[in-house]
Design a protein that fits this description.
The chain is of the alpha+beta class. The chain folds into five domains: 345 residues, Double-stranded beta-helix (4-Layer Sandwich), CATH 3.60.130.10; 139 residues, Hotdog Thioesterase (Thiol Ester Dehydrase, Chain A), CATH 3.10.129; 151 residues, Thiol Ester Dehydrase, Chain A (Roll), CATH 3.10.129.120; 166 residues, Rossmann fold (3-Layer(aba) Sandwich); 100 residues, Alpha-Beta Complex (Quinone Oxidoreductase, Chain A, domain 1). It is 23% helix and 28% strand. It is built from 27 helices and 57 strands. The strands form 13 sheets. Strands 24-25-30-31-32-28-37-40-39-38-36-35-33 form a 13-stranded antiparallel β-sheet, with helices on both faces. Strands 3, 4, 5, 6, 7, 8, 9, 17 and 19 form a nine-stranded mixed β-sheet that branches. α12 packs antiparallel against α13. It is globular, with a radius of gyration of 39 Å. About 5% of the residues have low confidence.
Length: 1181
């Protein structure tokens, strides 16, 4: 049979390839038995359409569709009674029917099969003797069979597609990293006008190992969403695309494009009437009406709900001659390629197209329809469930409404544990009367039927009938269990679909009194959580061993981004209760550091790295992690290589991020920063003199603090004062002894406390300004710190807050060992921020989130200069000067040229020799002389840039940059390429490679660069004993230098604040050129939500006039409208003003004329009114 398009109207086609792949033996046997003609090759490939419009128009019209499931007996007796066995594979999805042949089903059984598929999503039949012709006939019963325009078919049977991964691999090679087949989550044919309904896949050849297929339930995925989130997506539509792309006839050179259709995100199945989530990662492209970023976030979350909740999935192991029938309207599926093509797999597929997708807002979810919304029989001291006759319940509801008592009407078909159940007592008893209870038991059974202990022999049929009809006595049974001191349990573990009993349990234990305070509670399954995780958490709680601050490695962790998860409970780490800020237990910053240290150590051990210290930088603390006894908190820490700008990931720095989640709030980020492990001195040989200088500086600073801090502090009184003002620290946090201080310096002995000895203490008073740590610029912690309780270190601090005007304050802290000057902890740039800012109420509402770089004069900012004087010296000029010449120290200065010589090197050398006496300059090409421990000035001339590097020049530049002890690279600002050196030097500095500075010259300074270069040299390498400048990036402004400063971007902050706050108020003039306003109310009924918004004026009608409003009358009707007591879309019914425009039919008024009018909205800059509703204002008024 010659290839042809599936639709004769399609003429622009591509001829298919000729396949010669050998059929699996089992597949050939089935096809031959069915008398399929294989003489012209297998499979048959139709001619592939070239253009998308041809494919789009295939079946592009509405067709009637009646789902067979709508005709079925809800109990499905004809189908299920004929089966030998019915096996439900999971609670939510998947059923296997044993003992039936699909080819022999009656029409009634087919209808019931359709309903079963609609309810269970996918149904399996093994050992089927089924020909492709019989498979197609069954598909036609469920709807119009889809004939694909390019997928291979069984010869002579259009609509019976061939699924043969080995054949597909001839077109698209498959590998372990890029699996073949349908190994991705998807739904079939979503681009059709009426997409796929029931698909029937019959596999006649399957691998012996692997090759499973997974399905996920759209019903259950939708039910996983919160009710509020469902409101966001209900009724919305998305764009769905085809699996194959085609050319655009109007623009074929643009390349292949996918066919797109718009369908609802949530659809309703016509047979069940239940809502289902209908998206898939492969073919749902975007949500209509949303920006791409918004759409991506929502769709990404929906995809994850579908794919990551394994409790709503079924994984099926194929055997030869097995059929699977699933409903594409309520599922997604994924074919596992774990067999990697090592064995043949072959099957035939028939897909019946269904109705056009629709959404019904009144449709129920599956759990609503089946009465699975949760137990309604729970009783506890603070709430009660009442069941009974409808009239009685309605009467009770009216009384509760009258008394404003909170209640909820449970929409259930059956009132369990009530007299209503007596209607089924007889049948129920008859069904279980032969069941004999056990005579002995190893557990004690506390009955919620009797409220006490029930013996094993009591649990006969009569007991379970009583359980069906009597009141639940849960409180009585739990009270009985926990009241006896000798048999009282240590922990209560709830086995159930979610933590429904947590509230009743806590209320009951609270009612019993203090003796039950130590009884722990754990739940085995948590709604919307991975069951394996919650089970492990319950097991960990029962085991009682939770001493790992990181917790366990997350299932989604990987070597590149290791992630740990931990459940933080105050009962497990009771010493955390001892830090209480304003009466709340707040996770300390030291806890974040401990987590990061532990994670970095684990990572270092994984790479078998030897280290002696931990280094941190750019530590930031955001939202506080507040811990409470009634809520468990999940803490997550993630490490990943730090991205150094645009040049890739750092090899030594890791970025860590600590977040948390609990049931009272969403995910919150608490702490971020960079961490690495180091060997003292080993990784910084090129700048070892800096390390030595740093030690000397710390020794000087320590002596300075020792001299300045002489006032002895009564530490116990200090802790009492702190507790009184809202910062309570218990014994585990009271580590300071021998404490001395002055306004800007302090020192003490810092003891390591034993956290096993926990005492509880709290107090609360109002505090004008309480300072909390929010940022640390850099931190180094030695791995040799003692962990023995009772040991101590010497702690030193420089910095002091302003008590009169609280504001973020910088401190430097370090700790030395007891008997030496070895620095064990060095913390620079600790920022303490006041929790309460008294200026916040006077215009400080706009958060400082945005910053910008401004180039400011180097020596003209007094605040910065003061800051530099108080900070530790990062770098001190440690130049080893050459011997004295004529009584003056001299030092070699290498002037190197990169690029074509232009004479600037000679001018600079002459100027240095003439104007200074401390430098001995010499000129060389870049890299032509060894520059180790030398001072180097590199002149980048002309248009030369790093873009022009050759291998030889790169090696020379690398030697110079890495070997020179001090280097200044001079470049031209008028060449963007020339500025590439700035990024390179910043990257080198971030990796610890010495003092590399840059100087940019404007065009006007290029001819006379010497003053700027000398100024930079004087700032970087002073010869008069002054400390060197901390800045390393300069630009010239004549002979002056400017440096980059990070400043607050007030304009951007105001914009962000306005865009992220719905009710942002900004003072601005009411009359603005080209801008119109109107009065609106955000919440009708709340007059305090009135505000002015931009007025988008529509077209002026032919009989209308436009008035520039000068005065507006306030009427009672306006109040009624604003209070939402009268439906009217505008505010204001009368105004006066000047006509600014008239319609073409208006002849009684002219532009500029004063009028009074009754417009449609008068509280606005401009108002529209019918001309008949306006009157001129006399000239004498």
């Amino acid at each position: 049979m010659a290839p042809a398009p599936i639709d004769p109207r399609i003429v622009d086609v591509a001829e298919p390839q000729k396949d010669t792949l050998a059929l699996p033996a089992a597949s050939r046997e089935r096809l031959v038995k069915a008398e399929i003609d294989l003489s012209n090759g297998y499979p048959y490939r139709p001619s592939r359409p070239l253009y998308s419009d041809d494919v789009y128009n295939i079946r592009n019209y509405d067709r009637p569709h009646v789902d067979p499931g709508t005709r079925a007996d809800p109990e499905k007796k004809a189908l299920l009674s004929a089966a030998k066995e019915v096996i439900h594979l999971t609670r939510h999805i998947g059923t296997e029917i044993v003992g039936l042949q699909l080819k022999d089903l009656t029409d009634q059984q087919k209808d019931e099969l359709g309903l079963l598929i609609a309810e269970r999503s996918v149904v399996f039949f093994r050992d089927q003797d089924l020909s492709p012709q019989q498979q197609k006939a069954l598909g036609e019963y469920f709807g119009e069979v889809e004939v694909h325009p390019q997928v291979p078919q069984v010869p002579g049977l259009p609509g019976v597609s061939v699924l043969w991964p080995a054949l597909q691999a001839t077109e698209r090679a498959a590998s372990y990293r890029r699996p073949g087949g349908a190994s991705r989550w998807h739904t079939d044919l979503v681009h059709e006008r009426q997409p796929a309904g029931v698909t029937h896949l019959h596999n006649d050849a399957v691998p012996t190992i692997g090759g499973d297929t997974l399905w996920a339930s759209g019903y259950a995925a939708y039910e996983k969403l919160s009710p509020e989130f469902r409101k966001i997506i209900d009724g919305r539509t998305a764009i769905y695309r085809s699996a194959h792309p085609y050319l655009d006839r109007k623009d074929p050179e643009a390349g292949p494009k996918y066919i797109e259709r718009e369908h609802p995100i949530v659809r309703v199945h016509p047979a069940t009437g239940w809502k289902a989530l209908w998206v898939n990662r492969a073919m749902t492209d975007r949500i209509v009406g949303l920006d791409k970023a918004e759409s991506d976030v929502i769709l990404g979350y929906l995809f994850d709900v579908y794919e990551k909740n394994i409790d709503i999935q079924v994984r099926f192991k194929w055997t030869p001659r097995t059929s699977a029938l699933w409903d594409n309207r309520i599922t997604i599926h994924n074919a596992s390629w774990d067999y990697e093509g090592s064995e043949p797999r072959h099957g035939t597929r028939v897909t019946a197209l269904a109705e056009k997708p629709f959404f019904d807002p009144n449709a129920p979810t599956r759990r609503q329809a089946l009465g699975l919304l949760g137990p309604d029989e729970i009783q506890d001291p603070s709430s009660v469930t009442v069941s009974g006759d409808v009239d009685a319940i309605s009467e009770l509801e009216a009384v509760l409404n009258e008394k404003s008592i909170f209640h909820r009407h449970l929409k259930l078909d059956v009132a369990y544990h009530s007299n209503h159940m007596k209607n089924v007592v007889e049948a129920y008893f008859k069904a279980i009367k032969t069941i004999k209870p056990a005579t002995t038991a190893i557990a004690i059974f506390f009955s919620s039927v009797t409220g006490g202990i029930a013996a094993p022999a009591d649990l006969g049929p009569a007991y379970w009938v009583q359980n069906l009809t009597s009141t639940v006595l849960f409180t009585n049974a739990l009270g009985k269990m926990c009241a006896d001191g000798e048999s009282r349990p240590n922990m209560l573990i709830e086995l159930g679909p979610h933590s429904a009993l947590k509230g009743p349990i806590r209320d009951t234990l609270k009612g019993i009194g203090p003796p039950t305070a130590k009884i722990a509670y754990a739940r085995t399954v948590v709604r919307n959580s991975e069951p394996s995780h919650s089970l492990l958490n319950a097991a960990g709680a029962a085991d009682g061993k939770r001493d790992d601050i990181l917790g366990t490695m997350a299932l989604f962790s990987n070597n590149l981004e290791p992630t740990w998860r931990n459940i933080v409970r105050l009962d497990d780490v009771p010493w955390l209760r001892e830090q209480r800020i304003q009466g709340m237990s707040v996770y300390p910053m030291a806890g974040y550091l401990a987590m990061a240290i532990e994670a970095a150590e684990r990572r270092a051990q994984q790479h078998e790295a030897i280290f002696s210290r931990f280094e941190f930088r750019e530590l930031k603390v955001g939202a506080a992690l507040v811990l409470t006894d009634d809520v468990d908190t999940e803490a997550v820490i993630t490490l990943r290589p730090y991205t150094e700008g645009t040049r890739g990931n750092s090899d030594i720095w890791d970025e860590f991020r600590i977040c948390s989640w609990n049931t009272k709030r969403a995910w919150t980020e608490h702490c971020t920063g960079h961490v690495r492990v180091r060997i003292n001195g080993k990784q910084q040989t090129l700048v070892s003199n800096v390390a030595e200088t740093g030690l000397k500086h710390m020794s000087i600073q320590t002596k300075k603090v020792m001299t300045a801090a002489t006032y002895r502090i009564d530490t116990q009184n200090m802790y009492r004062v702190l507790s009184g003002v809202g910062a309570g620290y218990g014994p585990c946090f009271q580590g300071l002894e021998n404490y001395f201080s002055n306004p800007h310096h302090s020192r003490a002995d810092l003891y390591l406390r034993d956290t096993k000895k926990v005492m509880y203490k709290e107090g609360r008073m109002e505090l004008e300004a309480l300072y909390m740590p929010t940022m640390i610029r850099s931190l180094i912690i030695s791995a040799n710190l003692s962990t023995i309780p009772g040991d101590f270190v010497k702690a030193w601090c420089v910095g002091g807050p302003s008590l009169s005007t609280p504001q973020p304050t910088k401190f430097d802290l370090w700790a030395t060992s007891q008997d030496s000057t070895e620095v064990l902890i060095n913390m620079e740039g600790l920022i303490l921020t006041p929790m309460k800012d008294p200026n916040a109420d006077s215009g400080g509402d706009v958060a400082e989130l945005c910053y910008k770089i401004e180039w400011q004069p180097l020596h003209d900012d007094k605040a910065i200069a003061e800051e530099e004087r108080q900070e530790p010296i990062d770098y001190i000029n440690v130049t080893l000067w050459s011997p004295i010449v004529n009584g003056i120290h001299t030092k070699d200065l290498l002037i190197m040229q990169y690029g074509t010589p232009d004479g600037s090197a000679k001018w600079l050398s002459e100027a240095i020799s003439t104007e200074t006496t401390n430098w001995k300059p010499s000129i060389y090409p870049l890299g032509e002389i060894y520059s180790c421990s030398k001072h180097v000035v590199v002149l980048q001339t002309g248009i030369t840039s790093l873009r022009d590097l050759t291998v030889d020049v790169f090696d020379k530049a690398k030697r110079t940059l890495l070997n020179a002890s001090h280097l200044l690279w001079v470049y031209h600002l008028d060449s963007p390429d020339a500025q590439m050196i700035v990024g390179l030097t910043r990257s080198l500095r971030s990796e610890g490679f010495g003092r590399i500075a840059t100087l940019g010259l404007e065009a006007k300074d290029i001819e006379k660069p010497t003053p700027a270069i000398l100024a930079a040299m004087d700032a970087l390498w002073p010869v008069d004993g002054e400390r060197s400048c901390k800045e390393l990036d300069f630009r010239a402004c004549g002979s002056d230098l400017v440096v980059p400063r990070v400043t607050n971007d007030t304009v951007a902050n105001a914009f962000v604040h306005k865009e992220t706050h719905e009710k942002t108020i900004s003072v601005q003039p009411f009359y603005q050129s080209g801008r119109r306003f109107k009065l609106e109310i955000a919440s009708p009924g709340s007059l305090d939500t009135l505000y002015f918004a931009d007025d988008n004026v529509g077209m002026l009608g032919d009989d209308e006039i436009e008035i520039e409003v000068k005065a507006t009358g306030l009427n009672f009707k306006d109040i009624v409208v604003a209070m939402c007591q009268l439906a009217q879309p505008w505010l204001g019914i009368e105004c006066s003003g000047v006509i600014s425009s008239v319609g073409k039919n208006v002849s009684s008024f002219t532009v500029g004329q004063r009028v009074v009018a009754l417009p449609e909205g008068a509280f606005s800059t401009y108002a529209l009114s019918r001309a008949a509703s306006a009157a001129p204002i006399p000239e004498n008024i």
